[in-house]
Amino acid sequence: MTSLRLFRFFFRWCITLALPFLLLLAGARLLLSYEFLGIEYRRPGFPADPYGFTTEDRLEYGMAAIHFLFSAEDVEELARLRLPREKCWQPPAAASDCPLFNTRELGHLEDAKRVLSAGFTSAILCLFFAILCPLAVRYTRISADYRDAVLSEFSAGLMYGAYLTLALIVALAVFAAAAWDRAFDTFHEIFFPAGDWRFPFSDSLIRLYPEQLFVDAAFVIGGFAAASALLILAGLRLAQRSRS
């Protein structure tokens, strides 16, 4: 009986803690796309690049970095990308072009790729675990006690995870609204080496991904996660009513 209680506790809290993580990463993946960049760059009020990138330039060069983040390509592929002289900020004397990204920017993109790779790998493992356990109940021979425990704790974990997601979104929204700069810095300090994520406004990373883009992304990711959590709670409520 003790082993069953331990199993129920472990399984419920695995689902509970995994759900916010999965929803936030799913929202982030949707935004790391050509479609999101296109909407952002073209929407009224989005800051123009004071150093000369047009909307089309931003789409082309911005997607090059995002493609790198989700591909098996080495950073050397990004290092080969060049800007024509008229798009360069302070180009070298007599040079006909300049690198799209400098050495520090390439290093930061490598760090970002490692962080995203670890995050999405963890998310896939969490999702696999969440799907595998209910399937195992359906297609394998286990005791009725464990079968009931899996189904019951899976639903409970989803419910608690949805509430936890909503609580986290509210807490993060309050923190960001009260001190966006501090929230932005804290996020980068957690995931990236100190000082390696600060760049001059003239660097391509800032020209392509100004701070306003991150503000909008945080809003959309939070909204996506909150809406998904509410849909999960609504689905659980409907399922409960249909069983009663």
C-alpha Rg (nearest Å): 23 Å
Show unreliable segments.
none
Helix and strand succession?
Answer: HHHHEEHHHHH
Quantity of strands, as a count: 2
Label the overall shape. elongated
Helix content: over 70%
The total of helices stands at 9
**Percent of residues in beta strands:** under 5%
Number of domains: 1
Describe the structure.
The chain has helices spanning 2-31, 34-42, 55-69, 75-79, 103-139, 144-178, 180-191, 204-208, 211-243; strands at 82-84, 97-99. With 244 residues, it is mainly alpha-helical. The chain has one domain. The chain has a two-stranded antiparallel ribbon with strand order 1-2. The two termini are 28 Å apart.
Short description:
By secondary structure, the protein is mostly helical. Helices cover 74% and strands 2% of the residues.
